[in-house]
Structure formats: C-alpha cells, structure tokens
C-alpha cells in the first residue's frame, strides 16, 4: 500500500511540472479536458466529469521504427478551437435523427529538433471524449512505420471492469467482471476460447466498460478504424494506467503510414447513469458521413436460415464423406455420394423458404451450399472455396426462382476460411454471381488463421481487407454481415451496407460451451458500442433436444430469447432456431414476427452492466413500440411507466413473460402471454426468472380492439 502511495506521489510530482495548459469543456459543461506539455515536451491530457476525475494526467505519443519518435520534445505551435452542432439522418439505426454536438480543440505540436509537427485533435461531446493523432504531409514526416502507439488512459481508482482478454485473432470470449487490480490473477480463467494466449498478463480488448466506486460509468474504445491496426489496451496494474497496444503484422510492425494520415479516434464515453452509455452516439458521430449517394438499396433484414442445424451438431455443411481431400476444380462432386446429413439441399431450402414466406421474413441464409466444405478448416489451405460453385443438390437458379415467387431472397454465405488472398482473388466474380442470382446480402466469415500467413485478424492489413470487401460489395449493391472480422468502430455510418458484424461471442457458443446468463447484459455496453451485432437470438428449444450428443445448451428462458430482439440492437436479426421448434410455440413466435428491425426512437429504461437492462423502441414510420427486458442469473422485478406512448391514445399491449415456474435451467420454456389496453399512464410490473426476460409489443388500438380489457 505504502509503495503504491509513493509511486502515485512521484507521478503527481511529475505531472505538476506540466506547462502550457489548455482547457476545453463539453457543450453542457459537464466534461472538462485539460491539455498540457510536460517538461520533456510530452503531450498530456486529463478528463473530468462533473468535477470527478475520469482520466488522470495521461501521456500521448507515437513510437516510430528506427526514429526518435513522436513522443516528446514537443512545443506548442498552434491551438484551434471550434464548435460543431448538426443533426444527421442515419440510413437505419436506433433512432432516425442523431445530434452531433461537440467542442473541439486541435493542438499542433512541433518537434523543433526534427523540424516536423503533428496535430492532436480533441472533441468533447456531452457524452464523452474523442481524440486522434493527425500527421500532415511535410518534408520531414512522409513515410513511417509505427512501432507502438502510447496513448495512456490513467484511471482514478481501482474500478470494476467488464473485459475480455487481449488477443489479435479472436473476440469470442466470455466477459470477466472484476476490479482492475484483479485482471492479472483472473486472466487465465478469462481465456475461455482458443487461441489460448493474451499479448500480456494484463492485456484487454476494447470496448471495455468500467464502473467507479462512486458510480461513474467509463467506457474506452475507438472510432473510425481505417487503414490502421486495431487498438488493445495494456494495463499497468500498479498505477492503474491503460496504454494502447496495437495489433502487429507478421513481422511485428504495427502500422505503415504515409502522410497526410491520421489515427482512429480514441474514445472515452462517460456518465453517472448507465443508461446514457447505451444512448451515446459518440462512436457514430466520430465517423465520416455516408459515403454513398444512393442508399435506396440498403434495407434492414429479418431472416431465418439453414444454420443452427449445423452449429448444434445435428446436420453438416459438407455434402459428402467420399473424398480424402478436396481440390476445387479437379474434385468431381457429381460422382460422390450425397450424405444425408447435408442440410443445404433443395428440399430443405424450399422448406425454409416456405416457412419464411408464411411468417413474413425477408431472407433465408443457406450455409454449406458451395463446394469445399469437406476440407476447409485448420489446413492453412490457400485455394479453399470459389464462392460460385454450388453442390450438386443445391440448384441456385431454381431456388432463387422459387424464393422470388414467394417474396423471399436467399442470403449468400461466404466462409473465407481466412484465406483472404483467395477471397480477394474471387471477390468480383463472387459478388457478380450474387447480383446475377438475386442475392443482396452476404454473411462472410473468417474462421482460422489468416493467409497471408502470420497476419492477424485485427492488424492493419486485415482491417483494410474488411473495408475493401464492404466497399466492393457496395459496387454490386450488396449488404454485408461479416463474422470474425475486427470489432466495429462505427464505420456503418459511412458505409451503411455494413449491416452487422459478429466480432464477439454469439449464440453459436451456447451450442458449444454455453454463454453465461449475464453475457447479453454486458454486450450492449461493450461490443455494441462500435456497431450492430448479428447475435442470432430466438432459440426456443433451449436444451437443443433434437440433438442426441449435445455439447451445450442455451442459458436463458424462452422469454429472454424474445427480449434480445430489442436489447441487442441490430438492423439484421435472425430467428435462429429450426422452423419445427417455432411450430411448437407459435403464440410466442408472434413476437419475433411482429418486432421491428429499424427504429425512430429508443428509450433506455433500466440498465446496469452485468445485471439487467430494459429498452423501449419505436418502430420506424409506425406508432408501434417494442420493449425488451433481460436479467442475469438473478431473477428480478422490472417496473416502468409507458410514458413514451402518445398522450391520450390507447394501445394494445401484449406481454410475453416468464411463467411462474420459469427458470433458465429447470423450466426455460415456461412463459405466459398477457394482453390489455394501456395508455401512457400505465405502469408495467413484470417478474423476470433467473436468466429470464420479457418482451412487450404495443400497437395503437383500433375500434375493434377497444373490446379488450384494460391492463391490470
Ligand atoms: C463461424 C460463424 O460465426 C458461424 O456463424 C458460421 O456458421 C461458421 N463460422 C461457418 O462459417
Ligand atoms: Ca464466430
């Protein structure tokens, strides 16, 4: 303890030698930023919220390979202050209008000895801070290689944190909830997923959500990750200082830069109310406006798919077991025996199309439709798939015609197996094939180690690939849902055909080791800060009873699965279970059919990361509202007033809630449905089971509906 005190005294002393202080306040005056240079000419910033310290004096700088670096020896050359206030309209979103309001301070810093300069730009919003490094073109700063970025985030106390281990290739971890000082001892347990490594004993990924002892919610992430490597954070757990740690490339370099260029924004979202973290639009606001003139082809999607059958282990992606290995082009599938476990066949696809049409879905995803699945994984195989050659039992043209006649589209699946070189090689033909055959959405995937070998999923090279794929898809009017790609950083504002990503542990893990009941109460505070997630909810047969040798089961009640359509925001939502399981619970399935995927307005009614959340959203262009509430392993009572409804109007409320004996382990499918007439004065009180939830739909009452009883 004493040692810790001495260290922090030395630190304070160091910081008290700061010179040339500049300050900036947020438009509402709640946030205050101080910027200064230390005696050594190092850039230093501090952040306060309502006078509480959010970030203690923290250094900024970039270490450059074979160069003195952009770390110190700076003097202040220029400062510029501006204010910005505009409201913009997203193509899709949690609301139809977003206010982008901030005060800005741009400090230009000169390194006199090297005759070069950089700018650090700070933007202070009411909900937090964004800052980035800018490298203008100049004689003495043209090409450079980043060795490391040294952006510090010094925490004021030993906060509680919700975090996943730092890894360059996967984000598919459970979250760990512990104090910052406990990260080191918890790391081993936290590595719940292979590859079993973390870049440091105290390395974590962003977005990380924290809570201070006096109730401040602090979130660290990045925005507009373009042509740069993804930032992790390494914690100095003696001094509680996070520092940026970029993803390296195959030879250990962390970024190839040519001026003029800039880093992504580093973000600190802060509030004393957890609900404001969810309501923050800071990440989107720090991204550039939409890059496309015509966005009429970009539409939210509700879909089902031939997917859970394979993920659960019931069926397979592969067509045959006849080949010892596959070489695309020379392996003759027409001579192979079709396996009865191949799910992506004509008959099954038509069955899904019929179900989708009957229940008002937009699309049907089909995985395992193309040659190569017999031999794709863990082989570091370059030429795996060509993305255009279907298996003999999958007739693209016939199925497309069938789907079209029923008002349904098929959704394309491109598993790249992380042979990215192969994907780029085939990309134009693959997207042209989609356009020719009526597909407008692709689910892509990056399972396994990257080829070119040695590159990581979150390095600069791969980040450029993910964006290249999104832009290229736009040329063909294709929307993208990329799995295993780098975590989102709000780029969907600029490129709204990036409908969703996975980039976290999704429902698929329920079929493997399972997800903890608190997982979905944390994701909106972490992974979703950067953008929508294709979480694939809607599993009704939570015990996966149709599979004999189960690996996992779904750790929620059925009612909680319904709530996720509201609490896990995404313009791309899957009803992931098998149609036959929906047939068993048609009355509950009605909620999935009714719930919207695009919104005019969102209200965050109750929220505590790791514990619970309740969110209400108004359907875009309609008077309907949908509310979802979830809880962790503890049951709870949720209580809220419908004060967001139009005053003086009557609505039909349909509440899908956990039954009296519901429990995620012992009685997950116990649910009840209650109907009644409500107004904006009505108070809803509902009990959630352990890992339970509720879903509520509210539609304007017609004259006929007025016969329905008043809500009690
Ligand atoms: C992992 C994805 O997350 C999953 O959705 C997909 O089915 C498999 N990869 C196969 O591509
Ligand atoms: Ca995955």
From TrEMBL:
Swiss-Prot/TrEMBL keywords: Calcium, Signal
Start and end residues of each Glycosyl-hydrolase 97 N-terminal domain: 24-289
Membrane-spanning parts: none
InterPro entries: Aldolase_TIM (IPR013785), GH (IPR017853), GH-type_carb-bd (IPR014718), GH97_C (IPR029483), GH97_catalytic (IPR019563), GH97_N (IPR029486), Glycosyl_hydrolase_97 (IPR052720)
Keyword Coiled coil: no
Residue ranges occupied by any Glycosyl-hydrolase 97 C-terminal oligomerisation domain in the UniProt entry: 598-698
Necessary cofactors: Ca(2+)
SUPFAM superfamilies: (Trans)glycosidases
Pfam family for this entry, one: GH97_N
Keyword Membrane: no
A single GO molecular function term of this UniProt record: carbohydrate binding
Signal peptide: 1-20
Ranges for domain Glycosyl-hydrolase 97 catalytic: 307-504
Subunit structure: Monomer.
Designated name of the protein: Glycoside hydrolase 97
Organism name: Bacteroides salyersiae CL02T12C01
